[in-house]
Amino acid sequence: MDTYHVLDLIGEGSFGKVFKARRKGSGHVVAMKFILKKGKNDKELRNLRSEIEILTKLNHENIITLFDAFETQNEFVVVMEYAQGELFEVLEDDKTLPEEEVQKIAKQLVRALYYLHSNRIIHRDMKPQNILIGQNGAVKLCDFGFARAMSCNTMVLTSIKGTPLYMAPELVQEQPYNHTADLWSLGCILYELYYGQPPFYTNNIYTLIQQIVRDPVKFPDPISPNLKAFLKGLLNKKCLGSIELACSVTTAVRRRSKKKNIQQIVRDPVKFPDAISPNLKAFLKGLLNKSASARLNWPAVLQQPFVAEAPEDHRWRVPITQHDAAMKERLELLDCLRTVAPPRLTSGSGPAGRTKEGGMAGGLHALRRSADVMPTSQRQQFEVFSNATAEVLATCTDQVMLTDTLKAVASAADAATATPVQSAIILERLPRIGFLAPLVQRLNSNESPEVIQLVILCLRTKKKMLTDTMLTDTLKAVASAADAATATPVQSAIILERLPRIGFLAPLVQRLNSNESPEVIQLVILCLRTLMQPENGSVLSFPSQRPQREVTSILTQREETRASDIAVRDHIAFELLKKPAEPLQFLCHEATTNESGQGESALKIIVQCCKWNPSFGAAFVQLKEFTSFWAALLEMTADVATVEGRKKVPLATLSLHAAATLLPPLKLNAAHLLDAQRMSGFVSSALAAVCFYRAPTSMIVEVDVSILAHASAAATLIAFVHRDLRDIIAFAPDQGLVDGLLQIAASINACPTRPVVPRAMGSSYGFPEYGLLDGIVQMISIMFTDPESFLFETGASVVQGDKKSAFRLIIDLLRDSDSKSELSPLGLLSALRCVHTVVLRQRERAGSLQCLADTVPPYASDPPGQITVTAVVVRQLRTELLRHLRLWPESRGGGSKGVAAHINVIVQILSLTFLSSPNPATQAEYEKAVHAVQQGMYREGLMDNLIHSLDHTEAGAWGQPFGVVTRLAMGSQHFAKALVEGGGLHPDRMRRILDAKRSSGSLIADGLNVLSQLSRTSKDYYQPIHESNIFEPLLQLLKHTDGGIRAKTCNLIGNLCKHSNFFYDALCQHQLIREVVARCTDEDAATQKFAAFAVGNAAFHSEQLYSHLKGAIPALVLLLGSQDEKTRQNAAGAISNFVRNGNTLCKQLISDGALAAILKVLVNDSFALRKIALITLGSFCAYEECRSVLVQMGVVDTLRKEEATLMKEQDPTVAKYIQRIRQRLGIATA
Questions:
Q1: For the structural domain made of 954-1075, what CATH number should be given?
Q2: Which residue among 2, 42, 68, 125 is the active-site one?
Q3: CA gap 172, 156 in Å, rounded
Q4: What are phi and psi of 940, to 5 degrees?
């Protein structure tokens, strides 16, 4: 902080306040964002560091530059480029822009988004407020608070972030999305720049969502054809590429039948051998498909005439580019850009003891302090000294002494290798004294993290440390240590998290060059492969409803450490991307040619780099060596029907995983390499592996794990191709494909040990990256998304009509969520999405929700009674599963984000029961089925599960599940009671739900609605509501910027006072009454209405709060003239209650004109209001001071004139109210 002089507050971003500042010494003006740590848990802090890290990797003229980032005790501080204004301000000032200016902005934003997407980053919060205008008119994209880097195996995301006005249809529908969501937002922004408002604009969030999903985008004239075509492409509601072009079928299908002994090879894309069955022939012919349009995507966006590069662009682009380059160069010269310094080791300072070890430490301290060349006469002494060092390293048990010795060794090595002479004197003796062996033996899980870090520091493979004689031994030791480090998740976390920080990985990667010996190359690749894709070590079971206790214990321990395995993989990928790119080129060449016999390991390293580093895939597919690499990869297929083919199965399986990993960056950055003819052969081989797979027919025959893994990987690949590459290669799934998928699933479930090992992609540090069932479930789920799929049989019951048992497989997998499941969190999510799709399709096709009521045969362990699909879905919310899923790494589909995605899909399924029948003729039957389904939900404890599911996610993800909680509680007394009994009103939960600063408006509204419903329903809920301690949050909500929230808060306070004066003391103590009185003059009409309702109920039961309520009288008098009848009723009722329990407020009411206003109501308003006026006048007449004033106002004559019209309504209470007034005025009955 001492480096900067903070100037003015210039705004508030998504995470904190932003100040204008000046760097001391240079005078450079910057923007500083201060993000408070208070209120954020460790997970949120790690996420913030991750988001900041995204910015540090970006370097583009149209993206805001991060200069510096650091932490104080209480804050994160991010120092960024200072820009002059927001695009939002331009809109406010100018309303619209001419097309030429829109075009300039569009071209810059397209370049910025293409850069982000090429680095596999989705912005996720594109809006005018996040687009800054810099010098020379430069457009700068900023505020990556919602940005998210995509792993290469997760092209589709599901969590929702962003601004509703600019959100794509798939986002507002809670559907999976990808980078094209940013392109939709871009279209909305450009549309607003040109027309003055977004394509869809309304203050009602629900109406807005419906418009975004259903309404067509209108393009009023005048608008040029190029701009219109560009906006139409961006604002296409169909997000996933589905431009299905016809492609030829070049298939190599090999099948050996034991009965017929037939081996047929098919190579002709048109002719098919007679031996092929009709089903398979039809299936292969289904590769031809018709085309359909979709939202613009890369690289088509860049080719649009409206944003294509034009020669005249250099006039405005060159100044922008030059200014950006000059700024960064100046800052680099001034040393203002962020740099990451390697950690420095500090030595202990205590005096050495008198033991042998103490003497050794003293000697090492002396050596560490000396950087002089050692005289020849001291060589013998140094040799004894080094032998003693080796002995200490091997036998020392004192932690302080051991760490001090290791620090000395590390420093001595650096001092000893300062010059060639010193290196020759010292390093020539190290191999002879057995120095490395005791050092390597210290690499085990029993040592402290500090010891492990120091050992690795001593072993780091900098060239200056290693003589030729030592290099091989050291690499062998490192390879052995790496293998040991990956044995268990906890052990790997302790060791691996330190590798990037101590400079261990960079010199290892630099050894990948043609100048090294074959043995060194082999050992370096072995080390890297072991770190990137460990083959050995334990493999934990996936999250399940019945997790093993020891697995939960390991996950709990691992949660306390950072994701060190990802950090190591990301760091190695980063080192490989550094220029010169010789190590990466070497790996690519080795994977292609297998020249050093390490081709398979090289391929594994590349695949893992693509998976875990956002930028690697984009850079790798653009290497000139990639073309030959990709061609070789597509040839790595195997015929599992031959003995020779079986030997190639592991490599073929690896090639399938590699292709599935590389296809997303390839499609985005080098789509020209996705040749349909070449791809079709590869995909056909994958299809054959699935279609022709057959499970063992006997329990005696053991499942071949390698062939099973190959078939599973093939299913994953074809699922990806069918979903995301239809514009290149399309096929029509048929019954043969379904049969193969079911056979693979049967074999997986028959495996004696699960998780199934060995795994094609290694142990992945104990957390498998995928489940063998994932691809099967994904493919079936995709098939069900097609409304015309043959999987949908006619009739209302999906389960009974499921002749291929595809849907039954999905339900069984969800039921069998035990510790042996081969369904990863992402696979589990696909299974739940499949259920949602099937239920939705059945509702649309048959006008029924019978699918949720369908039953499946119970297991012996199940409780008595039938098991419905609803029960299977609700049980996915059980605490054991969610706890296990939360502890599972977020990078593998777990963590709080994984739990949120899991819960949201279940909520989407359950929410279908809130919809009305699509066919009015069957409404009664439909409602009966819905009632039966909701009864099943209640029996399964849905409310309790939903409430406790919130504990496993961040509050930002509570919106959807708590929305269902609210709907259920407001629609049923049984669910309302279950909400209270299940802990739904726990103070911590309610505090987070009603948090005015952090919670979304919809979540707050649901919380207020359910509290209002409970308090309105029965006074029995008053005590649990009081115990929820919601008073401070309510006070803040009464000041909320959203008028709807203020209105609902007033309504709740009114209901809290409905049945008794139970809450009077608390409302007064927490200043809520004072604030409600102030809301009577609110600018929002609905807030005024409910504020009048609240003050009226606060005065109903006693005069306890009269003195606090009197300030509302002037406002209530004015509200008697409101255009809204309900507001007038509430105001009249409140005034009536102000004299219901005493005359304390009579003088105030008289002086503020309340009596005259009530008389006016009696004469001029509706019957309902006139009736309330009679009640109020009767209350006034109880007090002499009011009676006299009313008489002076002519109340007697007024009453006589209005009586006839009032009595026409034939309401018996009217006569009673009139009689009461007459009695109190002392007037004889007419």
A1: 1.25.10.10
A2: 125
A3: 15
A4: -85, 5
Write the DSSP symbol of residue 730: -
Kindly give, in sequence order, each residue whose CB lies less than 8 Å from that of residue 999, ignoring residues fewer than 6 positions away.
955, 958, 992, 993, 1007
Helices (H), 923-1080: 923-939, 942-949, 959-971, 973-981, 987-993, 1001-1017, 1022-1027, 1031-1037, 1043-1056, 1064-1069, 1072-1079
What are 310-363's pLDDT values in tens digits? 878 877 887 787 777 767 765 665 555 553 333 222 333 333 333 434 444 444
* CA–CA dist 452, 492 (Å, integer): 11
CA dist., res. 604 & res. 608, Å (int): 6
Q: State how far the Cα of 153 lies from the Cα of 770, in Å rounded to an integer.
A: 10
Q: Is the pLDDT of residue 1066 over 60?
A: yes
Burial 699-713 (b: 16+ CB within 10 A, else e): eeeebebbbbbbbbb
Structure confidence at residue 937 (pLDDT): 94
Q: Where in the chain is the domain with CATH 1.25.10.10?
A: 954-1075
Of 433, 429, 431, 441, residue with least CA distance to 394: 441
pLDDT by residue (tens digit) across 705-719?
Answer: 999 999 999 999 999
pLDDT at residue 268 is higher than 70: no
Residue 125 is a catalytic residue: yes
- Please report, as a single letter, which amino acid is at residue 481: A
Q: Cα separation of 459 and 452, whole Å? A: 11
Angstrom distance (rounded) from CA 1011 to CA 1017: 10
* Residue 540 structure tokens: 């934990």
Please give the single-letter amino acid code of residue 305: P
More confident residue, 365 or 1103: 1103
Q: What's the pLDDT band for 177 if we cut at 50, 70, 90?
A: confident
Distance separating alpha carbons of residues 1201 and 701, to the nearest angstrom? 101
User: Position 272: which residue type?
Assistant: F
Q: Which two tokens stand for residue 389?
A: 């060092």
In the DSSP assignment, the letter for residue 697 is S
DSSP 372-422: SPPPGGGHHHHHHHHHHHHHHHHH---HHHHHHHHHHHHHHHHHHTSSHHH
Q: What is the pLDDT of residues 606-662, one digit of tens each?
A: 999 999 988 899 999 999 999 999 999 998 876 666 656 677 899 999 999 999 999
If one looks up domain 96-122+151-243+296-307 in CATH, what number appears? 1.10.510.10
Residue 143 phi/psi, 5-degree rounding, is 55, 75
**In the CATH scheme, what architecture does the domain 1-82+313-338 have?**
2-Layer Sandwich (3.30)
Give the DSSP H/E element, type plus range, for residue 1126: helix 1125-1137
**Which residues lie below 8 Å from residue 14, measured CB to CB, with a gap of 6+?**
125, 143, 145, 146
Mean pLDDT of 1101-1127: 95
Of 1086, 1084, 1112, 1082, give the one whose Cα is nearest residue 1097: 1112
Residues of each domain in the chain carrying CATH 1.10.510.10? 96-122+151-243+296-307
Distances (CA, A) of 782 to 154, 212, 213, 660, 792: 16, 24, 21, 16, 13
Answer yes or no: is 1110 a known binding residue. no
How would residue 845 be classed by pLDDT, with cut points 50, 70 and 90? confident
DSSP string, 781-799: HHHHTSTT-TT--SSS-TT
The mean per-residue pLDDT over the stretch 398-422 comes to 59
For the chain, state the CA radius of gyration.
36
- Residue type for 44, please? E
For every residue of 121-150, which 3-state class applies, written as one string?
Answer: EECCCCCHHHEEECHHHCEEECCCCCCEEC
For residue 77, list its beta bridge partners. Answer: 34, 70
Query: For the chain, where do the domains classified as CATH 3.30.200.20 start and end?
Result: 1-82+313-338
